[in-house]
Write a structure and sequence with these properties.
Structural class: alpha+beta
Strand content: 5-15%
Shape: globular
Number of helices: 22
Radius of gyration: 28 Å
Length: 613
């Protein structure tokens, strides 16, 4: 039996499905919806001939059986961008025709999940399109004083806007503050209602008995580690639900940037691939087409041998739900001294003296009555199971041509480095700055071709590094660093580290890192800038990596991309200047400084800081 768990809840259907096959189920939901479209002038005069002109008003009214008129919570209207719902009829809307020529008006009905549906089930959508032709307006002679205003260039919608929205949702779900809410809800019962953690809880219950540590009295750390892994696993993939932010917040984000709202979300962007249940990103569909001789596997090899089928194939989960993580997030947090801070605390916890004449952590004495003591006990014992700084450093070099500098990092002998990434990425940021200046000038139309070409260059370089450990190391590093942030955010550290209470850090672990940097004499650049580089850099690079930029010829997608990610790009440029001293938007191009590794620039700033001190 197959159920349609959405309003108006039709009876279930009996469907026969052969093993390994797919079958369609057609439900008669009984709405009998019909639409009528009328046109009228901007002065509300009706157009009897049915031939509208540009800037006239199209009014669409949806009607169906009175017995099917449900509450707004069950059935609601989906309107196109720029349309206004009739205040007297929630199933009617008005839309101003923007220009002459062929017009297509897309609208739909949103059907809410029924009572028996899963709690995280998205609403169903019934979409319809109505096409018509708008004529040119007749020129009218004018005279006298006229008021004239200029506005930014308009743009058309592109389907990849939905991908960028999914990236924003995924990165927001993986932010530390959301992760902290999950941990508080899981271990403290402190659920503030601002997050849906049912899937993460279920995954935690599933993997908790599988993640065992061969150490005595390390259960507290073990369950924290399992909870962190579960949270990352369920929140790093593309989410096809209407949105974590909610439709209103998504639309507001786009309206601030003069971008249209995609009606069908990811459904219009994803493409079908034979043998795969669910849509696939166009970029991954091209990669799949290069491997036609390899089958699709539904189960990973970790399932029991008597259940697993073919041991050779492409995992469907990896194809349909790629993990939206970038290792650059870990790189910038490591440059911000997150890992070094927790490493020094773990060393002092084991009563190992610091390298200098005076130990800055001499007063770090954690009594065994505190939960933090047992957590650090498990953390120090688990050192052998964490990624080493050397291993992460090789992967930074493989993904982006970036590397760490310091005593703990030996000289790299990388097999495959992305040596051109910094040059290409900084060139993209520079051409975006030029684009924004043009886009803000209402007397010109900004040229997005340089942005498109720069996007293609960065996409090519990123795709070349997406091999070997690419599928697993970024998520492993994210799990480890989120756990480190959670440990540093523990309230016990307020007693041991001289933090500055009056500084409003966006995340509670950050003042601990800045306090440690002050004690150890490390860089005085605030960890806030490194955190911004990590967050903004990840969002921008995810949109470049997973977008199908290599086959784009028209600049419209690059135009929309630059507008969509303007806060992230300008935030990254500002944070980069604050951290390294290099301004990527300066009119005079310093090619040597812009192409230099950030780690070298940071070391130079530290040397200058120590000389001045």
């Amino acid at each position: 039996l197959v159920w349609f768990d959405h309003a108006p809840s039709p009876p279930p259907l009996s469907v026969e499905i052969e093993p390994g096959c797919a079958s369609e189920a057609c439900f008669e939901i009984g709405l009998n919806a019909q639409s009528t479209i009328r046109f009228h002038r901007d002065d509300c005069a009706p157009i009897d001939c049915g031939e509208p002109r540009a800037l006239d008003i199209a009014e669409v009214a949806v009607s169906f059986d009175d017995s099917a008129r449900r509450t707004p919570e069950e059935i609601s209207l989906i309107v196109p961008p720029g349309a206004r719902v009739d205040p007297n009829d929630r199933f009617a809307f008005r839309w101003q025709i923007p220009s002459a020529g062929n017009q297509e008006l897309a609208w739909g009905l949103r059907l809410a999940p029924s009572t028996g549906a899963p709690s995280d089930a998205p609403a169903a959508r019934l979409m319809a399109r109505q096409a018509f032709i708008a004529n040119e307006r007749v020129a009218q002679p004018v005279s006298g004083n006229l008021g004239v205003s200029l506005s930014r260039s308009t743009t058309a919608t592109t389907t990849d806007i939905a991908l960028w929205q999914a990236i924003m949702r995924s990165t927001e779900r993986l932010s530390f503050n959301q992760y902290l809410r999950f941990m508080n809800a899981l271990f403290c019962g402190d659920d503030d209602g601002r997050g849906d953690f049912d899937r993460a809880r279920a995954r935690f219950d599933q993997i908790r008995p599988l993640r065992l540590l061969p150490f005595n009295d390390a259960d507290a750390y073990r369950v924290v580690k399992a909870a962190t892994e579960a949270y990352v696993m369920v929140n790093c993939g593309i989410v096809r639900s209407p949105g974590f932010f909610g439709r209103r917040r998504d639309e507001a984000y786009l309206q601030l940037r003069d971008l249209p709202t995609p009606l069908d979300g990811l459904d219009d962007y994803l493409v079908d691939v034979p043998g795969v249940d669910g849509g696939v990103l166009p970029y991954l569909a091209v990669i799949r087409s290069k491997l036609p001789d390899i089958s699709i596997k539904l189960s990973p090899i970790e399932v029991p041998a008597d259940v697993a089928g073919d041991c050779h194939g492409i995992l469907q989960e990896k194809l349909t739900h790629p993990c939206l993580l970038e290792l650059v997030w870990s790189y910038w947090h490591e440059e911000g001294m997150l890992v070094q801070t927790i490493a020094n605390i773990a060393r002092r916890f084991q009563n190992v003296r610091g390298a200098g004449d005076r130990d800055p952590l001499a007063n770090l004495e954690i009594d065994p009555l505190r939960p933090l003591s047992n957590l650090l006990w498990g953390y120090t014992l688990d050192e052998q199971h964490r990624l080493s700084v050397v291993r992460r450093n090789y992967e930074y070099d493989h993904h982006y041509g970036l590397r760490l500098e310091g005593k703990a990092v030996p000289r790299l002998r990388g097999a495959d480095s992305r040596s051109r990434f910094i040059e290409a990425f900084h060139n993209l940021l520079r051409v975006c700055a030029v684009f924004y200046r043009q886009d803000d000038d209402t007397t010109v139309k900004a040229d997005a071709f340089p942005v498109l070409n720069a996007l293609k260059d960065v996409h090519l370089i990123l795709s070349q590094g997406a091999h070997n450990q690419f599928g697993d190391l970024p998520s492993t590093a994210r799990i480890e660093m989120l756990l480190q942030q959670w440990l540093l955010a523990r309230p016990e550290f307020r007693e041991f580290l001289p933090t500055r209470i009056m500084v409003a850090y966006p995340e509670p672990w950050m003042d601990r890192v800045d306090a440690m940097k002050k004690l150890q004499g490390w860089t005085d650049t605030s960890v806030i800038h490194f955190r911004n580089l990590a967050v903004f850099g990840e969002q921008v690079l995810l949109s470049i990596r997973w977008g199908h930029w290599s086959d784009v010829q028209e600049p419209l997608q690059a135009f929309n991309w630059a507008r969509f990610f303007r806060p992230q790009i300008q935030g990254y440029v500002h944070a980069y200047r604050s951290a390294t001293g290099v301004d990527l938007t300066a009119e005079t191009i310093d090619a040597k400084a812009e192409g230099m590794l950030p780690s070298i620039l940071l070391q130079r700033r530290l040397s200058e800081q120590q000389r001045v001190a």
